[in-house]
Design a protein that fits this description.
The protein is mainly α. It is globular. Helix 5 (67-79) packs across helix 6, helix 9 (173-197) packs antiparallel against helix 10 (200-231) and helix 9 (173-197) runs antiparallel to helix 13 (294-316). The strands form three sheets. The protein has a two-stranded antiparallel sheet. It has a two-stranded antiparallel ribbon with strand order 3-4. A two-stranded antiparallel ribbon has the order 5-6. The N and C termini lie far apart (57 Å). It has helices at 9-30, 32-44, 48-58, 62-65, 67-79, 81-90, 92-111, 118-148, 173-197, 200-231, 263-267, 273-291, 294-316, 340-367, 374-379; strands spanning 152-154, 160-162, 233-237, 254-258, 319-321, 331-332. The chain has a domain at 23-231 and 338-379. It is 68% helix and 5% strand.
């Protein structure tokens, strides 16, 4: 027996679908509070010292947190090549906007204190705001468009043709709703982190903004679900599914139908756990923010992110990127993956390195545990951000 035959091809595909979801959730949880804190920076910090508290709350960890974004992109590239090809080419301008905004973060952290000028530092504070707000908004808009379907097709020899026009095409009403939900969710998470790490006025303002963001998250999540149910067609496979066959997106037939994105919840009622966690986590974050239970707030906010992202994945399964102009070309778990051997080798590598990353990250957070205090920042002005 060949070694990679120890795990069936269809099982490996599901495992990598799960791993991709885990990596995306890990990025949203770990880097989400960095981005949310950046969005809150101009509002919770009313003077330079308070803004330095916010920056120092995320400055030592944000670079390590971005490893999950790199891992997610790498997993898409290696495990789901057609998904990588369609999304990174079709969403090229959106990706460029995200990368441009993310580049502002390290530059902002490093250059903000290079000049002792209020105007200089204010400009970099707003650059950090853009570096947090734009990626979160655009990523949410992208998810909203994925749920509606993306305008791409394949030729008979599997060449990809993206029929979209401009970046503004993505800014449709449902896409913007998903983008605003992403922003609200991230601001809630960032506020939970600042309440955990900061004291005094910064923590108090973060508590207020986080409470509003939690309420907005609940409302927008509910509106998004109702909108999907009543106004947006989902996708379903109408032909036989060859779950262990070769990857060929054109080997099936797909139809669009109202309410199709909710079929998995009827067929597998346990999947209702995901949207329930989205609501319960946000409600818990709201209650714990008001009760000043800092760790519980952070855990509840993370739980909400887990639930909201899982809701999208479970609703769409087995689809990972539906096509709005050629439904039969939609990419699914069963026809858009790399080879059996590639997925197996990647799984072994992942099982080795992910625990190392988690262990190192846990050690870093343990070392850096504790509040960021204004007096310490003033005393260590040469070392703090």
């Amino acid at each position: 027996m060949i070694l990679h035959d120890l795990i069936d091809y269809d099982t490996l595909r599901v495992i990598w679908w799960l791993l991709l979801g885990i990596l995306l959730i890990a990025f949203a949880v770990m880097d989400g509070f960095d981005l949310g804190s950046a969005v809150l920076l101009p509002f919770v910090g009313k003077n330079d010292l308070e803004r330095r508290v916010v920056i120092n709350a995320v400055g030592p960890v944000w670079e390590g947190n971005q490893v999950w974004l790199i891992l997610g992109g790498g997993a898409i590239f290696a495990a789901w090549p057609p998904l990588y090809a369609v999304s990174f080419s079709g969403f090229y301008l959106a990706m460029f906007a995200i990368l441009f905004a993310l580049i502002l973060r390290p530059v902002g952290f490093k250059y903000r204190s290079k000049r002792d000028s209020v105007a200089w530092r204010n400009r970099w504070d707003w650059a950090l705001f853009i570096g947090g707000f734009v990626p979160v908004l655009v990523m949410g808009v992208a998810v909203g468009n994925v749920l509606q379907g993306v305008p791409f097709r394949f030729s008979s020899d599997l060449r990809i043709f993206y029929e979209g026009t401009t970046l503004f095409e993505l800014l449709n009403p449902f896409g913007l709703l998903a983008g605003l939900l992403s922003v609200a969710m991230t601001v809630m998470h960032g506020a939970a982190w600042l309440v955990l790490k900061a004291e005094g006025p910064v923590a108090a303002r973060a508590r207020s903004y986080g409470s509003v963001a939690a309420i907005v998250t609940i409302v927008l999540f509910a509106i998004g679900g109702l909108w999907l149910w009543a106004g947006i067609d989902g996708y379903r496979i109408t032909s036989e599914i060859a779950s262990g066959g070769h990857s060929n997106p054109l080997s099936k037939t797909v139809e669009m139908a109202p309410g199709a994105w909710f079929a998995n919840y009827g067929a597998h009622p346990w999947t209702m756990i995901a949207p329930a966690l989205g609501f319960i986590g946000a409600a818990g974050a709201l209650l714990f923010l008001r009760a000043r239970w800092e760790v519980a707030t952070m855990l509840s906010s993370s739980l909400s992110i887990l639930g909201i992202i899982s809701t999208v994945g479970l609703s769409m399964f087995p689809f990972i990127l539906p096509s709005s102009i050629a439904p039969d070309a939609s990419l699914t778990v069963w026809d858009a993956s790399s080879s059996h051997l590639t997925l197996f080798i990647m799984l072994i590598v992942t099982l080795i390195f992910i625990p190392i990353i988690v262990a190192y990250t846990s050690w870093v957070y343990r070392v850096l545990w504790g509040k960021v205090k204004e007096k310490e920042i003033e005393r260590e002005s040469g070392h703090a951000y």
